[in-house]
Amino acid sequence: MEEAAETASAREQTAGDRAEQYHPPTAVNTTQRLRELRDVMRRVNISAYIIPHTDAHLSEYISEMDARVAFISGFTGSSGTAVVTQSKAVLFTDSRYWIQATRQMYCIWDLVKSHSVQDISDWLRKEVSGGDRIGFSPFLFSFNTFKDYHNNLAPANLSLTPILDDLVEMDEIWRDRPSLSPEKLFRLPDEFIGRSWQSKVEEIRRQMRHDASKPTAVLLSALDETAWLFNLRGNDIPYSPLFFSYTLLSLDQIWLFVNISRVTNELKEYLNSSCTSSQCVQLFEYDSVGSKLPEYFNRTGVKVLVSTKYINKALYDLIPEGKLLTTDYSPVMKTKAVKNPREQEALRITHVKDAVAVIQLLVWLEKNVPKGTVTELTAANYIDQCRRQQEHNRGPSFKTTSASGPNSALPHYKPSNRTARTLTVNEIYFIDSGGQYLSGTTDITRTVHWGEPTQSQKKAYTQVLMAIINISRNNFSAGTNGKILTKAQEEQGPHAGRAGRGQHGTGTIRVVDLRVERQPCSDTPPTQTEENGLGVAMDKEARKYLRYQHGTGHGLGNYLVVHEAPVGFGSDNIPFQEGMFISIEPGYYKENDFGLRIEDIAVIVPTKNGSNNCLTFDIVTMVPYDRNLINESLLSTEQIEWLNKRYKKIRELIGPELKNRKDLKEEYQWMKNHTEPFHVDNVVRKEDRAFDSEFMDKLSNLFYAGDVLLRLENGDTVGPGSQRSKRYDVK
């Protein structure tokens, strides 16, 4: 052991020499923390330790007390895994955070530009000798995550060793670890409750009774599941009104594990916690979950349903194998995703309020940026200030991305006092922000340019806008998977339990500005194809795809999490249903130059004719796009008409909100100016453009894949069985 300690000391000295050579001014020196962690690793006889960015509930956004990756590495992104051996410290993260990681980590850390279990396992197999032990906290791994690691490491004779007492949390390492908030929990006011907790419980029990596997109970691990079920909220997680809790909902009992000292007498009465019948919520201390749950698991004839994406390995192992039922998403998660009419109306109203705040920001920026007095950070603070003026606002729904110039090429850049640039009229600026309101959660991104944008910037912006339009215009059958509607390719990270929460993966824009005829919706969900031409488009001149380093969309909660599972455009998201809310947010990023993104929130609604179980998207975000960045000549007549209808709706809904307030006359005029209808005459008609037959052959083959027909001006079609000529006049 002494020899091992000497070797480790020599390795640390080498790492220290590296650190003295260079480190970014924004980097955090964690040399001492790593040294102390390695000392503990030697004591417990592990050769490597895996530290994920999550908590015991597999949350995307975590409390300060759970920010282990940030503490040990300095990296504060919302997705990453740190791996520490006696000689190396490595961060694995996805493409959203590569540049941020290099700015925040001291040079004793290495960055691996991947976040897949496969790549982390490959690295461990190279660095750790066969027969050695790799430590992990079973409270921070979902069952799915553990299984994936085990399947990759076991063939190399590497043992995954659970460490029940997390090493980073030890007092000798994290001496000033933040403590749990003492704030009391609170219930949503009646006016914002779409369904009583009793009706929700009965609905979930109804689904359990009709489930072919016949579960007697469901164990809820994700924090937003319990918060939604009981219409309760808390302040344990930044930007999300959640509280640490578990719920065991059986057919005849309800067990809620929570810090009871934070439950007021009023809430105890609200939950009927003084009784033990089927409509009474029995309260148990949060920390007793591991000792109390086996009392139920050991009963005769019980079957417990768990979500393998959200239950941690420690709790999973408590359930006897013959009594365990598994699913990707619990019935609570699926039910929560579909908003009822009252919840839908609340979210629509919330987005109207939020639009007023965003328009206030855009007007303020337009006036003050030319003065040279606005930075990325002051702009981010100003949008929070505008939202606080709105009724029922409870703060931001996530930390604002406020980025200009080269910083805008970082999809999830967060400004600080050290990094914030001064905004100028000569650069692109985009802001991705959101608000929490008692009535709902919002998320919006707008990109602007106050000067003379380059032609490439206008082209990129217009193509991103065209992607928004084309996705939004899709008609699809109930039960369609979002993957079918876009070319977004989700890149699964090692903590797939959070799938649908964040912006994981790489999206692809193909901006179809050609008129297409889609096959009518039917009662049978469409068969998934790799490409089917829906809601996507290609840059015809370059014949390339525009790729962006984040997902195309995510679900949205009713005063819950801003990235709500399990709705999205990924293959692992649940099929679309009426009443779901989803973001649509393509983007484009050119490293060290500029980046841009547009994000709208839409609700899935029946098409106007309501035939054949057919659905579409209805955008509820009510802020106009930047006219200065739109190249109208790239838009089709249908896209122009879509924009004009959107702008008419914005005027109808936002106009009264602005006009009725004397202090917002300037904002009202700004809104009117920016929602002036576009003129169809400005569109370059496609019959003025000639397409070579080779390109049209490729385009036709693309449309074959999805049974989509392209209607030509002369009445011919490009598609299955269609004929082609050498010149195609397309309207």
TrEMBL record:
UniProt-annotated stretches for the region Disordered: 1-28, 389-415
Q: List the transmembrane segments.
A: none
UniProt key word Membrane: no
Assigned protein family: Belongs to the peptidase M24B family.
Q: What is this protein called?
A: Xaa-Pro aminopeptidase 2-like
The alphabetized UniProt keywords are: Hydrolase, Metal-binding
Q: Where is the Peptidase M24 domain?
A: 347-604
Q: GO MF annotations for this entry?
A: aminopeptidase activity; metal ion binding
